Structures are given as structure tokens and as C-alpha cells.
Amino acid sequence: MKEFELKYGCNPNQKPAKIFMHDGSDLPIEILGGRPGYINFLDAFNSWQLVKELKEALGLPSAASFKHVSPTSAAVGIPLGEELKRAVFEDDIEGLDDSPLACAYARARGTDRMCSFGDWIALSDVCDEVTAEMIKREVSDGIIAPGYTDKALEILHTKKKGNYNIVKIDKDYVPDPAEHKQVFGITFEQGRNNFKIDRELLSNIVTKNKELPESAVRDLIISLITLKYTQSNSVCFAYDGQAIGVGAGQQSRIHCTRLAGSKADTWFLRQSEKVLNLKFREDLGRPGRDNVIDGYINQNEEDVCAEGIWQQYFTERPEPLTKEEQQAYLATKRGVALGSDAFFPFSDNIERAYRSGVDYIAEPGGSVRDAAVIECCDKYNMVMAFTGMRLFHH
């Protein structure tokens, strides 16, 4: 396939639209179902790079959930505990523990379920039956993977009345070292960001505490690779083999940190006893439960515990999850890793990160206020590595 005609570009008025190889060669993909659009392909090709790089860096099957060209989360295939299975609505899946790829998908899709609604999925390995069964019941726009088992493909073809977007990519495809894009009719060219993120990148530890356990190394690598494919400015919190809070596309770095931290807090609180034991009505679907859980935790626009409202969602009126209870629960959670795509200009980022359990940080360094940032890390006995490498993505 030399080119693929798209229905339209970013918006319906942007026509004509297509994808093709600049040198006239064949596209490195096969479309096995549906008709992906412009934004679908932006998500597909960015998310594929992320999971491919995670697999190469950590040697574990990887998955990512993408929306509007940024990951809601990315994860590697580590088994899930029972509380986490319940929190991500996957405790009823048979064979989950036997499929590392399915574990990676459960983590990535379940981290920020509200943002993952209608997502694009990327898998580093051939999609198996267990993973396909999980995808089948989620609201999703499409998937990219290096292959699919026959049974997995059969399952995925049942989504959206057979119109679910399914893309197979050549796992050996290597893009040209130079990339181009046009803005306002003007062509930009730059070298592709092939910078390798690995253990060595974390060797320059600048804090007094220099004890960096392997679990933290893994999580920092996950956060940094996730940032590499996240719209900047961006900050990523990671824990237990997955990104648990992504703050993307903010003009101020403290806003990135606040956004990522609040998402990480919500992810932890989804696993708290009160949330796990909410008595939902059987007719409330998975997306509806996600919205209600978010409202229950964050006390958003609607008080889901109020008289006349709780009956829409629950069979029993829940007791509110108070701020004091939230703070007490979150105080037990430490060991979170944080990556930043550029240096922290002020120590307020460290203060906010510490509130969400961060003990390990990786950032480029190079700010005129590095000393103040390091001093704040030392105050909390954090470990911080200067990578020397910025990871902006636009």
C-alpha cells in the first residue's frame, strides 16, 4: 500500500487528507479493520514508538493508551495485585495472570480510565486472546500492534459492528533519520529523536541520598520514555511498572506537576477500601462507573453522595470519602518516581511531588535554581538524577 486516503484531516473541513511515504515506498502497515483517521494515525504511530522503546529498554511486554497525541498511561507486563485488578475493573478476566501483555494493557488502560475513554491502544507484542477480550468491552477507537493471533483478530472484529480500527505494523520498520512537518506552508526539518533512555542515563545523582533501587530505575525509565512521546510541557509520575499520572501540554511546569500529581492521587485512591466497596447499580456501565468514581474521589461538579443523586448510581448510599481520609490513605503511599521533560525552575514542583509520594526524580538539570531544587529534595531525603537530556515533544 503506497498511500491511504483519509476521510478528512484533524477536522472535517480539512480535505483532502492521506498518509503516504515521502520516498514513494510502501507504508509499513496493514489495515486489518475499520478506516482509521488522521488523529487515529497520529496516536497510532506515536504510541507504537513508545511501547516499542519500552520493550527494548526493559525487556517486558508493554502497552500504552493514547488520546490526542499524548499517553494517558503506559505500562509494562507486571502481574496485578487483587486490589489493583478490582480498581481497573479486570478482576473477572480469566487468564490475566498468564499473559504479561494483558497485564500491561490492564495497567495502561486502567490508570486514568476517564481520559482513556475512546482511546487508541498500542501493544509491543502480538495481541493475544486475553488482551483482545479485555479490549472488546472498552470504549476505544483502535489498536496498533505488530500482529494478532487468529482468535484475537476474530474478537476485535466484533467491536463497532466490525468497524473497529485495527492496524498491524511492521515491527522491523525503521524511519528515516530526518523528519519533516509543515506549519503554515513552511517545511520544518529536524533529526529524529533517537536518544536512548536506559539505566546509564540515571547515573548522575545530585542529591545526598544516592540509593536508587532497581524498581525505581524501572519506573524512572518508564516515566522518561512516556515523556518522550507526550506533548510538552510534561511531567510523568510512575509506580509499580506503570505511568500513574501524566501532566501534558501545560505552559507552566508547576501546572504539569499538579496535574500529574492529582491523577496519581486519584489512581491510588481508586484502590482504597471505600472506593473498592462502592455498591454500584448493575445497570451502570463501566464508563459511568469511572465518572462516578472520579466524582466521589475528587468531589467534582456533582455530589454523588447527595440525597436524590446517589440513587442514580448506587444501591446503597455511600459514606463520603473525606479529605482527612484521603490524606491519611495517601500518606501511606511512597516510592513514586517522577520524570520531567525539562528542568524544574522552582522548588515548588518538589514540594508538590512529595505530597503525592514521590521519592525518586529524573530531570535534565541546568536551571539557574538547580541548587534550590536539590536542597528541597535533600529536605525530603529524595533521590534525584540529572539526565542532561531534554525531552520536548511537539
Structural features:
394 residues, alpha/beta, Cytidine Deaminase, domain 2, 3 domains, 6-stranded mixed β-sheet, 5-stranded mixed β-sheet, 15 strands, globular
Average per-residue pLDDT, rounded, comes to: 96
Give the termini separation. 28 Å
Across the major sheet, the strand order is 3-8-7-6-4-5
Strand content: 15-25%
For this structure, what is the CATH class of the largest domain? Answer: Alpha Beta
CATH topology of the largest domain: Cytidine Deaminase, domain 2
CATH architecture of the largest domain: 3-Layer(aba) Sandwich
Say which CATH homologous superfamily of the largest domain is assigned: AICAR transformylase, duplication domain
Number of strands: 15
Order of helices and strands: EEEHEEHHEHEHEEEHEEHHHHEHEHE
Which class best fits the helix and strand makeup? alpha/beta
Note the total helix count: 12
Number of structurally distinct domains:
3
C-alpha-based Rg, rounded: 21 Å
Q: Biggest sheet: strands, sense, closure?
A: 6 strands, mixed
The poorly predicted ranges are none
Oligomer: single chain
Shape call: globular
